[in-house]
Amino acid sequence: MPEKGASVSRRPHAQLPDLLPRLIAFARTLIGDADRARDLVQEAAARALAARNVPSDAPAYRAWAFKIVRNATLDELRAKHPRQHFDAEPDVDLWRFDDAYIARITVNQGLSTIAPAHREIIALIDIAGFNYAEAAQILGVPAGTVMSRISRARSALLEAIESSSIRPLKSSHGN
Amino acid sequence: MATERKSDEVLLNALVDGELSPAEQARAAARLAADRDFARAYAMLSKLKATVIESADAETVGEIHWPVARSRAWRMAAIGISGALAASVLLGLVLFRLLPIEVQTSAAERTIQAAFVVEPVIPDLTPAGLQLARTVVSAYAGGQALVATYAGPRGCRLELWVSEAGRSAKAAGGTERRSWRVGGLVYELVAFGMPASRFEKVADAAEEATRATAIPEDLDRRLIEARASTAPCLA
Prior knowledge:
The structure holds two protein chains of two kinds. By secondary structure, chain A is mostly helical. Chain A folds into two domains: 3-80; 99-163, Winged helix-like DNA-binding domain superfamily/Winged helix DNA-binding domain (Arc Repressor Mutant, subunit A, Orthogonal Bundle), CATH 1.10.10.10. Chain A has seven helices and two strands. Chain A has helices spanning 16-31, 34-50, 58-80, 104-113, 116-127, 132-139, 143-163, and strands at residues 3-4, 53-54. The model of chain B is unreliable at 60-79 and 91-106 (pLDDT under 50). Chain B has helices at residues 2-16, 22-34, 36-57, 72-96, 106-115, 196-211, 219-228; strands at 131-140, 143-151, 157-164, 176-182, 185-192. Chain B folds into three domains: 2-57, no CATH class; 67-97; 106-228. The chains are: A mainly alpha, B alpha+beta.
């Protein structure tokens, strides 16, 4: 049963500070701008504190907080790119790729070029750390859709990495 | 066959994400031991997932103000101020016209390989808040130059020009610049509106990255310091 009103206590929000780094990373992956992602998360945190119905258990609260940030970033994306289809999901083949090009710089570059729906599912599963069932709940789709979407998203990311002209250096700290 | 491969892809991703039941995991383990392509794809997806997580961990959180729960009037005021701040940031983005991200193509890669005997190094300046926005090969009278453009969220823009020594290109404009030579290549880093002290730190890190055969251990730390220590760019 959700607690009502911020006046009940701040306890429902106790985990919000710990969620902030992942919320920012999630927003940054979706909109590709670290400073704007911080602003959006700050606004979302203010909105969360002002909310009347706050989930009381930790997993539900976490999903709720990500939903607020997701809605804010989607609003911004749609405002900036009104003609872009957020749910467009081009399909590519996983088996032909080479893992030699996978590194932080190529992954960051690749994430900025793939379809928003692909960025989103990768952000939810890998960056936010949700399981398929939780991601399905946040997106409002069946778990089977999450399974196929994450598969297509990773293939698209590998394609973006491979088709880029950027190649990683060998790193002395494993990058 | 294609359907089977797609089904294998979904299975592999679920395995990487720890979403399989014990029985499914056992079947997948047997398949990994017997099928080389399957094992290679699994290793690749595991590396991809680990790198995405690592890239998010590297993101600096920066300054976040913990919003304190207050009365409804205060909360409404806070939302109003946040909205005004958001509007000003959006207006700033429009005014500064951030560079669009361009999808790199394998054709571009082939062009670079054809243009340079020694492959240029494009440093990762993400820890300094500078995203690689695009890379293009630009022709000029003496030859060809690879131009990498980095953009930051607060109006920062940097261009890194790479051309072959003896036929080096001269970048136009900019408020700060530094050039250096590595082997047969000339690098020229040009800033547009970046404070000189920050540019020095970014240029030091970029130059070192292009000279190194491996990324220096403390490169990220130095780029983050360069970002934190100075005012926003003016360009």
